[in-house]
Amino acid sequence: MAKIPPGVGPRFPQVVVLFGATGDLARRKLLPGLYHLSAAGFIPGCRIIGVSLDDIDADGFRGVARAALGEFASRKVTESDWALFSQSLDYVPLSAGAPALRAAVEAAERSLGGETRRLHYLSVPPSAALPAVQMLGEAGLVERSRIVMEKPFGTDLASAVSLNARLHETFAEEQIFRIDHFLGKEPAQNILAFRFANGLFEPIWNRNFIDHVQIDVPETLGLGTRAGFYEQTGAYRDMVVTHLFQILAFMAMEPPTALEPAPISEEKNKVFRSMLPIQPADVVRGQYAGYRAEPGVDPESEAETFIALKCYIDNWRWAGVPFFLRTGKRMAEGQRIISIAFREPPKSMFPPGSGVGAQGPDHLTFDLADASKMSLSFYGKRPGPGMRLDKLSLQFAMHDTGLIGEVLEAYERLILDAMRGDRTLFTTAEGIERLWQVSTQLLEAPPPVRLYPPGSWGPKSIHQLIAPHAWRLPFERAWRDPNKTGG
Ligand code: BG6
């Protein structure tokens, strides 16, 4: 395993208290992520104490973790690394209460020896967050600790304000890390690098040159075992008010004075402050046919499994430029793209039938998959006589750099940052409260849910929403396969 450069990991060994330790997120991402960070040597020592409603013991938890790695780890799990990792796992059922949790943390700290830090990770639904915070307070585990809170952070403005106020009764703001894993994705950070490290695009990154923007995250997966969570949240709270708006802020913000937490948060929050309230008439809510028959779902459920909307950022850079956002479950394809459509030039000089403009405007498209890609499409002349134009593209794939192996999964990156106390990629109370505020009209008067067939791109009205433009997805021209030459 390559040596980890100094400064990348935390200085002190960590005791992680993982609430929701047997849940979906823990099994898919957090346990495999902690395993990789430990095995690769990013953390100078780590003990993980699982906490959940399940009545199991430490061995039972090891079984859960081993199965999770078998199913979800993206890298090879060796028997020797697993043996070490499994020794670092302990478990306290929620029913055992605060004293048992304190005893387990103290035992973990003794076994690490020397100075240690605590990382409390709340991988629990919104209703279980405050009881967990209270338990940590009662157990006296606030000192030397940081707390990672999972989204959705509240369910509307009032609940987010009250959650923040209650949290601050136990933890100081500097200890709180509100996680949004989309910001930990390598390509999301690459938006900042792309925008601010190059002189080419930033001068045209505004309303004078950009016609509209799409942030489109269709998913093929359905509910899995998450009916209980999803029924309370729906696609808007699960994906838009969190991930999609955060990506929008990276895409739209002014250059920060430094790539540091305060300047970045300030610029993101300015974007959120400039957002106009979301109008229910600019929103399409959908539900896939068959959702109401899923186990755990109310047969009359009005929860949306799909949402598409138009929003505006009313500042000097973006006034009048529509941002179209879309995401949903059980859709035709799994994709995560940001696509920027540039304004079109006058075309009168081209002869009729030349094809200029016939395939839409020029686009800059980012693919937010871990192996990120980028494409810039433009019109060029088709070789041969006359003047016939075709849409062509320049494409870049991170695959071509040979550096894909270095990519940290989003949660790994963010867990490591939280252990180091680096808040650059975390969201702030102010930003989150403002996003709930712009959502109020929609949450109070949501348009009715419309059915869409599983495997489709959503209800039919998505086309009216975006007209006279069109959704980029499904792509007319697929990404070139980076493994094939001449494609
Ligand atoms: C989660 C949502 O935060 O993000 C899920 O709760 C969604 O519903 C997931 O599927 C998508 O994340 P990723 O990283 O798999 O694109």
Structure characterization notes:
The chain contains twelve helices and 15 strands. With 487 residues, the chain is of the alpha/beta class. The chain has a nine-stranded mixed sheet with strand order 14-13-12-11-7-10-9-8-15. Strand 1 (14-19), helix 1 (24-39) and strand 2 (46-52) form a beta-alpha-beta unit. Helix 1 packs across helix 10 and helix 9 (261-274) runs parallel beside helix 11 (429-444). The two termini are 35 Å apart. The mean pLDDT is 94. 6-O-phosphono-beta-D-glucopyranose is lined by residues 219, 238, 336.
What attributes characterize this protein structure?
12 helices; nine-stranded mixed β-sheet; alpha/beta; single chain; binds 6-O-phosphono-beta-D-glucopyranose
Q: List how many beta strands DSSP finds.
A: 15
Q: Whole-number average pLDDT?
A: 94
pLDDT < 50 runs, ≥5 residues: none
* Small molecules bound: 6-O-phosphono-beta-D-glucopyranose
SSE succession: EHEHHEHEHEHEHEHHEEEEEEEHHEH
- Fraction of residues in helices? 25-40%
Strand order of the main beta sheet, please?
14-13-12-11-7-10-9-8-15
Number of helices: 12
Task: Report the structural category.
Answer: alpha/beta
Principal-axes geometry comes out as globular
Set out the fold topology.
Blueprint (H helix, E strand, L loop, with lengths): L13 E6 L4 H16 L6 E7 L5 H15 L6 H9 L1 E5 L3 H16 L4 E6 L3 H13 L6 E5 L7 H14 L5 E3 L7 H11 L13 E9 L8 H26 L8 H14 L8 E6 L17 E6 L11 E6 L8 E6 L20 E5 L5 E9 L7 E9 L12 H11 L8 H16 L4 E4 L9 H5 L21
Helix pairs in contact: 1-2, 1-10, 5-6, 6-11, 8-9, 9-11
The chain binds 6-O-phosphono-beta-D-glucopyranose (BG6).
The site of 6-O-phosphono-beta-D-glucopyranose has 3 residues, from loops.
